[in-house]
Amino acid sequence: MGVEDPYSEILNIFEALIFQVESATQYHTMSVLPRWYPTSLSSDHSSADPREFVQKSFFLQSFLQEAEEFWQAHDQGKLQSGLWSEQALMGDESYLEATALVQKGQRFLIIQRYQPEMVTIQPVLQKARENHLAHGKELEVRKDVEAHLGSQLAESEQIRDDVMAVLEHLKLATVMIDENSVVTYASPAVFHQFAIDTQSLVGGLWTQVLPLIEEQCSRVQEQMTLPEMGRTSVAVSLQKKQKPWLEIEVEVHDDPRDQRRTILFLKDRTEIEDLRRQLIGHVHFEKLIGKSPGMQDLYQKIQEIAPVDVPVLIQGETGTGKELVAQALHRLSARKGKAFVAVNCAGLTDSILGSQLFGHKRGAFTGAVSDHEGYFEAAEGGILFLDEIGDMPLTTQTTLLRALQEGEVIRLGESRPRKVDVRVLAATHQNLQNLVEKGKFRSDLLYRIRVARLQLPPLRERREDIPLLSEAFLGQARAVTRKFEVREISPEVMQILLQYPWPGNVRELKSTFDFALIHCHGAHIQISDLPPEIGGPPAVLVTPRSSPRGEREEILAALEQVRGKRAQAAKLLGMSRSTFYRRLSDLGISSEECSR
Amino acid sequence: MKDQGVIQKKVCMLGGSSVGKTSLVKRFVTGQFSENYHTTIGVKIDQKSQCVDDIELLLVLWDVYGEDDFQKVRASYLQGSAGYLLVVDGTRKETLAVARQLHTLAAQSMGPVPYALLINKHDLSESWQVDSEMYEDLASNACLALPSSAKTGEGVELAFAELASQMLKV
User: What is the pLDDT of residue A430?
Assistant: First the structure.
């Protein structure tokens, strides 16, 4: 076992077992016994036989078979076993490695031992495998997340499809608009109901791609600018060749996810509107509101009279909407594209009214500094509406009669007649027949202007229209006062409105809502919000007409309250200016008394 | 190396990395289990006596490092084996593919020897990814194919006992 070789000391430093191999069974030890040599084999190093180590190692016995093949096949080189551990042999988990070496035909077997910490590949491999495992887990998690997201996406798509199916089933035409007024979505119902290719809608400005005219777009646009709780539906009538095609109700909603975006619901109300018309007739006619038999009759007559180019006498109490009827006649007549000139005949002297109606020549009277065209000429081709014709002075009546008979007018101060093509509509709250009998109105003029007649019912005779009118006036007053939180009329208030006599008729009802909205502080209009003459005991100077003081005192009190301003006094009393001036005249209230 | 009268049988533990080969050996030899993972370097040789039908058998267990992208199993380590345990991680179905490669390598190196197929880590059933249809090809020629757990000991003794029994018959 002792080695005389000069290199032996160097070999000993490596703490390796080195054998020179003569044959499969002949091993010569070339090194001293290393310190790691297992004591289980020999507690006494001096007597140990290292060949026992080779014989007892399962791994080396296997490796030597591989090494034998190597030695036989090579004259030079080495074959390494790779690391192994054999606890039963070594008594610990230290690593060993064997090398089969052949050098110039001489064979050697070298066995080295490594402590686990000396095996540098260990931490690298450990780390690499841990990373590999972590990566695998990460991939699993990612797959799970992808599967989850895929499932969520499928679920979302299913929900979207369901919502679309519901929208489709409801035939609810839905249009979504972004903050730039561009249509981003249109439901299939838009195509079905309006025969518009939904794809052509998407990407366009809604004001251009929806089949709405400018005025309808403006009304929808107006709703968009309001807070959602203050919005109302916009009824639009889509027309084809001047005939209603579809009645649409446009609901404007904010997109709950992004309030800069808007959702429009276009509800086809055509069938409902048709049925309602059949059931109750017109609720709205032009700017008139009312479903009562009296109003239905009025609508019918307006439609019959409007196209016939004859004078019309419109009769009704103050505030019943005589001018609205005149406007409706104008719009439904062949003269609708021409002028509509309204003149109030009350409270004007003969000369002033004559000058205004027929015009004058420069110098015709003091102050006539230039030639002046009268209302007749101004209304050329259109309609001249003479309000309060019962208050027209007799002289002017004569001139008017001539104008109607001859179709020509002569300006004051001139002798040359001028041809005029004007349809005259006249209105009065008075019984003209009585005035004829009293000699205050020319009978021939009466016969001339009442070729067609319309009688407007007072509000007290059509109380069933009060809720409808109230709703409309509440909406208008809400928009004017911008009190969108006021939503309803309390039942108590409605009860009062239904019972009140309404001497000022619809005009008085409208001003009642203007008054109530100013004073209302909640969501409902209460009795306390109503004007005192309607909602409770009088708290202002103006007293009900039934009071003993009489109408004269009432007018004077109102004038005093507004410091003589007649227009404001008329408004306070719920009268038109023309009625107010007429009452001043009738009651003999002088200008001095007015401004006192 | 050899005791007279005791039959020795070399048994290789084969499978992908981290499938639990070392833990199965430790459970079989010492009855213990450790949660800590230490990758095996090279070959780790253990031994345990097993009595089969009154015949004492010394099983020499070659726990060969797990094959993966970093290390391929050296065929010479498998030579002389009387049988092997093919181990799959039931929570990672990709370890089935590694098992198939090693099964082929074993057949080339060892010849027709008995083997047992263990689908390990059965204690992690909530993460289980494989079912019997997926390893039917590997199980068809195995002397035993069953789920196992080095952590709970499920299937461990049974697998080694059955393999030892089959090795004696060869």
Answer: 93
Same domain, A310 and A446: yes
A439 and A509 fall within a common domain: no
Is A140 exposed, middle or buried, given 0-12, 13-18 or 19+ CB atoms closer than 10 A? Answer: middle
The model's pLDDT over A509-526, given as tens digits with 9 standing for 90+, comes to 999 999 999 999 888 999
CATH of the domain at A565: 1.10.8.60
Place of tokens 């077992």: A17
Separation in Å, CA of A202 to nearest CA in chain B = 48
Contact call for A95 and B42, based on CB within 8 A: yes
* B38 interaction partners in chain A (CB closer than 8 Å): 126
ipTM of the complex: 0.91
Range of the domain at A493: 462-594
Which chain A residue has the Cα nearest residue B47? A88
Instruction: Give, as one character, the DSSP assignment of residue B148.
Output: -
* CB atoms near residue B136 (< 10 Å): 10
Q: What is the pLDDT of residues A454-476, one digit of tens each?
A: 999 999 999 989 988 998 999 88
Per the structure block, which two tokens stand in for A85?
Answer: 């551990």
CA triple A449-A451-A452, angle to 5 deg: 105
Work out the minimum CA distance from B25 to partner chain A, whole angstroms: 13
- Angle, CA A444 vertex, CA A441 and CA A448 arms, to 5°: 105
Report chain B's mean pLDDT, rounded to a whole number. Answer: 92
Say whether B43 and A59 touch across the interface (CB within 8 A).
yes
Give the residue from chain B lying closest to A128, CA to CA: B70
Using CA atoms, how far apart are residues A353 and A496, in angstroms rounded to an integer? 42
Judge contact between A201 and A212, C-beta under 8 A.
Answer: no
Question: Do both A531 and A452 map to the same domain?
Answer: no
- Between A and B, how many CB-CB pairs are < 8 A? 72
Q: What is the pLDDT of residues A78-91, one digit of tens each?
A: 999 999 999 999 98
Same domain, A350 and A403: yes
Could you tell me the CATH number of the domain that includes residue A405? 3.40.50.300
Confirm or reject contact between B109 and chain A (CB < 8 A).
no
Residues in chain A closer than 8 A to B71 (CB atoms): 125
Q: Which residues of B touch A63 (CB under 8 A)?
A: 76
Residue A531 lies in a domain: yes
Distance from CA of B111 to the nearest CA of A (A): 17
Q: Does B35 touch chain A (CB under 8 A)?
A: no
Confirm or reject contact between B34 and chain A (CB < 8 A).
no
CA distances from A144 to A141, A182, B37, B91, B128 (A): 5, 39, 25, 14, 14
CB-CB: which of A86, A126, A132 is closest to B68? A132
d(CA A542, CA A556): 9
Looking at the fold, whether A432 and A308 belong to one and the same domain comes out as yes
What whole-number distance in Å separates Cα of residue B149 and Cα of residue B20? 9
C-alpha distance from residue A375 to each of A287, A418, A452, A588 (Å): 24, 13, 22, 29
Tell me: do A335 and A409 sit in the same domain: yes
Q: Are residues A427 and A362 in the same domain?
A: yes
DSSP assignment string, A476-529: HHHHHHT-TT--EE-HHHHHHHHHS--TTHHHHHHHHHHHHHHH--SSEE-GGG
Distances (CA, A) of A406 to A397, A419, A421: 14, 8, 10
User: CB–CB of B42 and A129 under 8 A?
Assistant: no
The count of structural domains within chain A is 4
Q: Please tell me what DSSP assigns to residue B93.
A: T
Interhelix angle B21-30/B156-169, rounded to 10 degrees, is 90
pLDDT surpasses 80 at A412: yes
B83-111 residue pLDDT tens: 999 999 999 999 999 999 999 999 999 99
Domains in chain B: ranges and CATH? 7-169 (3.40.50.300)
Nearest to B70 among A82, A85, A128 (CB): A128
Q: In this model, does residue A561 exceed pLDDT 90? A: no
Give pLDDT, residue A541: 40
